[in-house]
Each structure stands twice: as structure tokens, then as C-alpha cells.
Amino acid sequence: MWYVKNALTRKNLMALTGLFLSFFLIIHLFGNLQLLLPGETARVQYNWYSHLLADNIIVKVIALVLYLCILLHTIDAIYLTLKSKKANGSGYAKDKRGRASKWYSRNMMFLGSIVFLFLIIHFKDFWYQFKFGELALDEHGNKDLYTLVIEAFDQLWYVMLYVVAIIALGYHLMHGVFSAYRTLGLYHPIYSKIVKFSGMAYALIMTVGYIIIPIYIYLNH
Ligand code: HEM
Fold this sequence. Notes:
The protein has helices at 7-33, 39-55, 57-88, 92-98, 103-106, 108-132, 145-152, 156-183, 192-220. By secondary structure, it is mainly α. It starts with 6 loop residues before the first helix and ends with a helix.
């Protein structure tokens, strides 16, 4: 690969891109929780907020960094997985390790793949429609992204797809945040409990926060 040769540096890059994506998730959650505001306020507020972000040059630059981080994080994950498979040879070493580690820490690639597939659907249905689709305008002249999202979560299968993907994301984050701290050397045995607890709490808050949105919309619209 052209940009980083060293496996350790690659792990650092995975950790850094992962932490950036985790930070994005907090902002994205707050943005989307506006969908749950009462009545017409939700439509006006959500459309206004989305329009505000889409028009801001700083947000546009950050969005480009975000897309790059998603790509780098994915490419590095594939590279490191293939490399560790090659180094471990047979599955024997993996089996021994399995007894001491949590199932989700051993299946980061699988969980990450679910999140990646989810992102392709998510980009196609929401991101692409918002940027390039022909959305109707609301009474303030903003694209009616609110109606697009509400109508999507009107379908039970679509809500279930989100719930499954978000649970996979939650487990991915549970190990990911902790692992990133360790990789970057920010982890210290004395603080291990705090790091573990905050990683778990973050993953749980993200999971519950994101899951509530499609379920609430399905039940209330
Ligand atoms: C139920 C929850 C969610 C809703 C309602 C939602 C809604 C949206 C909408 C409407 C867009 C297009 C408008 C925009 O670009 O801001 C979008 C973009 C995006 N979403 Fe979500 N989303 C949800 C969950 C997620 C999750 C769990 C992830 C990550 C795993 C995610 C990642 C993204 C990304 C990366 C973008 C592109 C952002 C950008 O271009 O600035 N979303 N989402």
C-alpha cells in the first residue's frame, strides 16, 4: 500500500480514524434526535438544521475528512485482518485466544462489515437523496429531509434493518473505543477501569440513542 507500510502505524491510523468516526456519531445522534421533537416543530427544525449544515463550508471540509476516515478505516481493517491471518497460519492460535476474550472483540471484522453494508444502504437512501435527489421543499424553502426519513421508518423491515445494524455498531464500538486507547498508548493500568467503563457507557448511549429513533418514528407516525 502506498500511504503507510508499517503495521503499527496502520493500527494507529485505524485507532485515530475510529475515534474520529466515534466523535461524528455523537454529533450525528444529536442532529437526528431532533426528529423526535413534537409535531410540526420536528419537521421545521430538522430541515432547517440539515440545510444549515449542508451550506456551511467548514462542515463540508469536515464531511470530506469523514468520508476519507470511513475509507481508510475500512481499507486498514481488511489489510490488518489479512495480515494477521497470514501470520497466525492455522486457526489454532485463534482458538486458544478465544477463551480469554469477548466474542465481539474476536469478530470486529464481521461487525464492521455489517456496519459498512448498512452505510451503503444509508448513503443511498438518505445521503444521496438529500444531496442529489429531487426532494420537495417545506414551507421555509428547505429540502424536506424530515418526510424522507419519517416515510422510510414507516416500514417495519426497514426499522429492523436499522436495529440490527445499530446493535452490530454498538458491539463494534464497545471493543473499538477501548482498543483505540490501547493502540494509541493512552491506556494505563491504573485508569483501565475508567477507560473500560467510559468506552462501554459511550457504546451503550450510542446504541440506545440511535435505536430509539426508528422505533419511536415507527410507533408514532
Ligand atoms: C437512526 C438513525 C439515523 C438517522 C435517522 C440518520 C439520518 C441521516 C440522514 C438523513 C443523512 C443525510 C443528511 C446528512 O448528510 O446529514 C445521514 C447521513 C449520514 N449518516 Fe446517518 N442516520 C442515522 C444513523 C446513522 C448511523 C448509525 C451511522 C453510522 C454508522 C450514520 C452515518 C452517517 C454518515 C457517515 C452520513 C453522511 C454525513 C455527511 O455527509 O455529512 N448514520 N444520516
